[in-house]
Amino acid sequence: MPIIVNLDVMMAKRKMSLNELSERVDLTLSNLSILKTGKAKAIRFSTLAAVCKALDCQPGDILEYTAGEEPRD
User: Fold this and answer.
1) How many CB atoms lie within 10 A of CB 58?
2) Residue ranges per domain, the chain?
3) Average pLDDT estimate for 31-44
4) How far is CA 5 from CA 10, 59, 67, in A?
5) Domain covering 3-65, topology
6) What is the pLDDT of residue 72?
7) Quick one: which of 23, 27, 55, 68 could link to 2 by a disulfide (CB 3.0–4.6 Å)?
């Protein structure tokens, strides 16, 4: 997948646990875990905005594009 999720990096920089982020953005631990591990297929802009607000960062700090294999349908 050419999109890399760096949520764990930003959480470490902000010294924030998955539990704390889950409470701040009102998402379940399982949904945040799916996002954190890069297994998510999509993310709502409202969710991305809430995560960015909680971590005081920009979307580009969390999501990164790399040239690689295109996903198969």
Assistant:
1) 10
2) 3-65
3) 92
4) 10, 10, 14
5) 434 Repressor (Amino-terminal Domain) (1.10.260)
6) 53
7) 68
Burial class (CB in 10 A: 0-12, 13-18, 19+), 21: buried
Distance separating alpha carbons of residues 39 and 30, to the nearest angstrom: 11
Beta-bridge partners for 4: 64
**43-69 per-position pLDDT tens digit:** 999 999 999 999 999 999 999 999 866
- Residue 32 neighbours by CB distance under 10 Å: 20
Question: For residue 67, what pLDDT is reported?
Answer: 85
C-beta neighbour count of 16 within 10 angstroms: 14
| Predicted confidence band of residue 1 (pLDDT cuts 50, 70, 90) | low
pLDDT of residue 46: 95
Please give the distance of CA 39 from its chain centroid, rounded to a whole number. Answer: 10
